[in-house]
Amino acid sequence: MSLMLKEIAEQPAALERTIAEERAKIAKLGNLLKARDIHLIVLVARGSSDNAALFGRYLLEITTGIPVSLSAPSVYTIYNAQLRLDHALVVGVSQSGEGEDINRVLESARQSGAYTIGITNEPGSSMTRLVDETLLTHGGRERSVAATKTFTGQMLLFYMLATELARNPVPFSYEAIPRLVAGALEQKPAIMELVQRYVFMENCVVVGRGLAYANAYELALKLMETCYVVAERFSSADFLHGPLAMVERHFPVILFAPPGVMLPGVKSLIERLRELHADTLSITSDIDAAGMCTRSIVMSREIDEFLAPIPYIVPGQLFAALLAEAKGLDPDAPRSLSKVTRTL
Question: For residue 311, what are the contacts with CB-CB under 8 A and spacing of at least 6?
Answer without folding.
Answer: 177, 180, 181, 183, 184, 299, 300, 303
